[in-house]
Every structure is written in C-alpha cells, then in structure tokens.
Amino acid sequence: MRFPIVLTALGFALWGSVSLSGAEPAGEACAQCHAEQAKKIQAAAHADVGCPTCHERHETVPHPAGVPKPECSECHADIANEHAASVHGQALKHGNQAAPTCEVCHGDPHELKDTKSASFHQGVPDTCGMCHSDIAEQFKASVHGQAVAKGIPEAPVCTNCHGEHQILSPKSAASPVNAAHIRETCGQCHGNVQLSKRFGLPADRMISFDASFHGLAARTGSESVANCASCHGVHNILPSSDSRSTVNPRNLPATCGHCHPGAGTRFVIGTVHELAGRTEPPAVHWARFGYSILIPLTLGLMLLHNAGDWLRKLRLRRFRPVGQAERPAALRRPQIRMYPAERIQHALLVLSFLTLVWTGFALKYPDQWWARVLVMWEHRFPVRGVVHRIAAGVLMAVAAAHVTSLIASGRLRRHWKQLWPRRSDVPEALFNFAYNLGLTSRRPYISPHSYIEKAEYWAVAWGTVIMGMTGVMLWANNLTLHFLPKAALDFATTVHFYEAVLATLAIVVWHFYSVIFDPDVYPLETAFLTGVSVKEREPEAETGPDAAPDAAPDSDPPGGQSLCR
Questions:
Q1: What residues pair up with 25 in beta bridges, in sequence order?
Q2: CB neighbours of 229 closer than 8 A, spacing ≥ 6?
Q3: pLDDT in tens, 162-176
Q4: Based on the number of CB atoms within 10 Å of its own CB, is 257 exposed (0-12), middle (13-18) or buried (19 or more)?
Q5: Can you tell me the mean pLDDT for 181-191?
Q6: Most exposed residue of 204, 230, 340, 472, measured as fewest CB within 10 angstroms of its CB?
C-alpha cells in the first residue's frame, strides 16, 4: 500500500514543480497557498512578472526556511545605483536605518502602484511627507500642491524637482535644485509654451528672467544671484494675489530686502518680470525707442561720411594726373596734437574703455568665446564684475583728472578751447559731407580742429557722463532701490546698455577710421604716442578759420585736405 501512496505524492510534487516554474503571473499553483498575495499582485505594477522571477527555490514544497528575500537591484540595477548615490542611499550606507529604501516609498512588492498612474502621482507628497512632514504641509498649501490635490497630472510633485531615485543635496552641483540649475528645473514647466497656454500661465517668465540682470548673471555661472526660488519660495509657492505669497506686492520689500536692504520702502517696487516692448515702464520704453532711432541714424551718417571720404581720397591718389606736383614741402608742417598730460589721459581712457566694453558685453553675451575667459570664474569669484568696476573707477578718475588739469593748466586750457564748438562748424560739416558724397566739386576748408574732432570729443564727454551716472546707479543698486522705484533702475539699465552699444560702434566706425583707415594717416595716426600728427594740415594762419567753405577746387593736391587728426 505504501508504494501507490508514495507514487501519488511524487506525482503531485512533480505537477506542483512544473506549475510553479511556469512564467504566468501569480501562477495558479502559488495562488493555492498565497491567495492574498496573488490577488494583490494582479492589480500591481508587477502583474506581468511571474513569481519565479523574484522568489528563489520556489520549486521546493514546502518552501525551505531562510530563503533570502529578493533584491530589487536584481532587475533594477540602474535605479539601485542611483539610489545608492543619493542622500537616502548614503544615509543607509552610514548606518541610518530610518533612511528610506525601495519598500518605504513604493510599498510592498506585491502591491506596487504604476509610477505613471494618477494615484501614484497624487500620493507622492504623502509618501515624502512620511519623513518630511513640515515641507509636505507647505507644499500641499502651495499652488503646486493644490493642483496635485485636484488631480492635475501635469502639476509638479517632489520628484519633478528633486529627482526620483538619485535625490541629491541642494548643495551638490549635480542636483536639479542646486542654485545653478533652478532656472532649468522651473523652466521645465514655466518654459513650456503648451503648458502655459493650457493652464493660463504667463508665457514670458523665463524670457523676462533671462533678460534681467539676475538671469544674465545666472548664465555666467553666478550662484549667489537671485533665482526663481529666491523670490517665489521653494515649497511654499503661492500666487502673487495671495497675501501670504513672498511676491505679493506688500511682501516684495521684505523679499527683495534679503539682497537689497531698504528696497521698496519709499516707492512701490513695481513689475519684476518685464519684457521689452510689453510690460516695461514707459520711461524704459521711450528710452529703447529713442536709441532704436538714434543708433542706426548716427552710425549710418558716419558710414556714409567716411565711405565718401575714403573713395574720394582713393580716386585722387590713384588717378592723380601725371606730372601734378605734390604739396610744397613748406606746407608739410608737423602739428602737435596732444601734450604729454593729454597722452597719459588718452592711454588710460583707451585702456578703461576697452576693458569696460569687454567686461560689460560679457554679461549680456556670456556664451560667446571672447566672454568665456571672464565668466568661467563666476561660480567661484565675480571676476567679470570686479574688473568692470575697476575699469569704471579708472574711467571716472580720468574724467576728474581731465577737468582738474583744465582748471590748473592754462596751456592745456588754451589747447582745449580749440575743441569748443563754433558757428562755422555747421557749414564746414555740411559742405564737407556734400563734398564727400560728390554733390559738389569744390573742396571746403577744414579747420585743424574740425567738426570731426569736436564731435568725437564732446560725444566722449557726453557718453562718460551718461555712462557714469547710470553705472553708479547700477553699482549702488541697493541705494538706488532704497530711494527710487525699480523703474529708475530699469531705465538706468536700458540707457547704460544702449549708450554702450552706441559708444562702441561709434569708436569703431568714426574714431578707428580717423586714426587707422583714413588714407591720410594709414596705417596709424601716432599722435597718441608722439604727440605729433602724421597728417598734413593746412596752417590756420594761412587760410583762417572763417575762410569760405568752398575756397579750393577739387583738382588741388589731396595733401590740403584735413578731415581727421
């Protein structure tokens, strides 16, 4: 009798072994003993994973004791490595048994929720809140938390900002919530045009931030400049209409005051996210509009004037009639154009101006190759800003030294008076411009210190005053925001930038032509080094400053022309 019984038992064991080794989810054989687990797993993320995939030595019935639990890393090796490198994994490594593991966040392996499901997304704040209860409460009260509670699948939860498994400390350079990456993290939603349109969010927030000083400084690598979280908060983000919001108009003085003490205490701070041509203050709009006309008009006239002068001089030199005499040697008088004190001031002016141009535009265009050598240090030390301010100090010191030298030295003052505008400058400029364009064949008289030098000198003087005033306002931004509304700082920023553009292009088009590309001085006017001009000029005593503007014929030798230094 024992033999049939043993044979029957072996048959059942063999049948159970075959069934348990099958790949069907929650096999029927397993369900006979583990009915509750089999029921749970049918609705879980592991529903398509057969029991044998995770459970070792399942074929032995009854199951032997001491079989180790399956490790998630056996199937999810990449995720396990990310978790090990995270703050949670490191805490476990250093003996903190309360740090979350896979099961803490995802639950029992037999009832895992699909991470793409609405219920899992909605439950993330509660999951993280098991350890971070205070933060979870702040988040639930925020605009993001309220949207999550309403079941909006696009609403961000903890994992959207901090990451899912590789959660790093905000101090880590690789963390998405590190100061250097806040803009990109927030921009995932607020820079998405489709999301902005669907939920009625302002579509220009990232654009306006990038155009601001904060955005530009952040692009250079500065981690101390204000970012999205600095103003809007981190977990307690509320709409500006909410009286509890950090960006509510009543709370802006306190919010901005973290970096700019006293800001908004006398005047309402006003609009923060400004977009050119849309939400900017009227003064900023008109300044931008004015420069949009002034810059192309000024540069266009300069190009036209210099191009005509260059072509005319080329024609006279290249196609001079054979046998025409050169200018008499008696008229080739070297003229002193710059005294030693003026040459020193000029050298300091050139050095400071070029440095200001380089460091100033490096803030606006930090991705350009010529700017990278400056901005590559920004995450450690604000090299660009420091150098820019030093150069600004040198420029203002040169301006002060220039004024002082004119007061103290009669010689320099008499020389400077030659640059004082006269009524004869207007017809001189008009007749010479017409002559350069070929509108007249009569060559006008050009003063030794003509409208060209005068226009350049007074443009430098005017630009230095404008750039100095607006630059000081931007430099002392805390003081500016204490006594003036933010619109004044925005106006100063706009004028400072466009004036810099105008000054830089004018130097390239007007001054460089005078001292380099003018055929009368090419390849270089060396007066700034020697004090003596290489250009031949008619002595003023021979013709006089009030001579008729159309006194000489076009066939005269070109040496008599004096358009630049």
A1: 50
A2: 177, 182, 186
A3: 999 999 999 999 999
A4: middle
A5: 94
A6: 340
Alpha helices (runs of H) in 176-333, residue ranges in sequence order? 182-190, 193-199, 205-211, 213-220, 228-232, 252-257, 282-318
What DSSP state is assigned to residue 63?
P
Q: What's the rounded mean pLDDT across residues 167-186? A: 94
Judge contact between 515 and 521, C-beta under 8 A. yes
The number of residues in the chain equals 565
For 76, the token pair is 């999810």
Q: Dig out the tokens for 481 from the structure.
A: 């925001």
Which has the closest alpha carbon to 90: 161, 191, 169, 31?
169
Q: Which one, of 167, 177, 169, 34, lies nearest residue 108 by Cα?
A: 34
C-alpha dihedral (386, 392, 394, 400), degrees to nearest 10: -150
Q: Where are the alpha helices (DSSP H) in 44-192?
A: 51-54, 77-85, 87-93, 102-106, 118-129, 133-141, 143-149, 158-162, 182-190
Those residues with Cβ within 8 angstroms of residue 352's Cβ, 6 or more apart along the chain or in another chain:
391, 392, 394, 395, 398
Residue whose tokens read 């000054």? 503
Q: In the numeric block, which tokens belong to residue 152? A: 């909006």
Percent with pLDDT over 90 in the chain? 63
Q: Decide which of 42 and 158 is more confident.
A: 158
Q: Is residue 161 over pLDDT 80?
A: yes
CB 38 within 8 A of CB 26: yes
- Rounded to the nearest integer, the mean pLDDT of the chain is 86
Structure tokens belonging to residue 12: 């059942």
pLDDT confidence tier of residue 541, bands split at 50, 70 and 90: very low
* pLDDT average, residue stretch 230-234: 94
Angle formed at CA 510 by CA 496 and CA 449, multiple of 5 degrees: 110
Q: What pLDDT is stored for residue 539 in this prediction?
A: 56
- The rounded distance, in Å, linking the Cα atoms of 262 and 195 is 37
152 DSSP 8-state letter: -
Whether pLDDT at 2 is above 90: no
Which residues are CB-neighbours of 49 under 8 A, at least 6 positions away?
25
Task: Give the residue-averaged pLDDT of 318-331.
Answer: 56
pLDDT tens-digit map of 337-389? 999 999 999 999 999 999 999 999 999 999 999 999 999 988 889 999 999 99
Question: Alpha carbon of 352 to those of 205, 347, 397, 486: distances in Å?
Answer: 36, 9, 10, 29
**What is the number of H-type helices and E-type strands within the chain?**
29, 2
- Between the CA atoms of 373, 378, 384 and 385, what dihedral angle is there, to the nearest 10 degrees? 180
CA quadruple 303, 309, 313, 316: dihedral positive or negative? positive
Q: How confident is the model at residue 546 (pLDDT cuts 50, 70, 90)?
A: very low
520 token code pair = 């009368």
Helix axes 486-506, 282-318, angle to 10 degrees: 0
- 172/239 Cα distance (integer angstroms): 29
Is residue 324 scored above 90 in pLDDT?
no
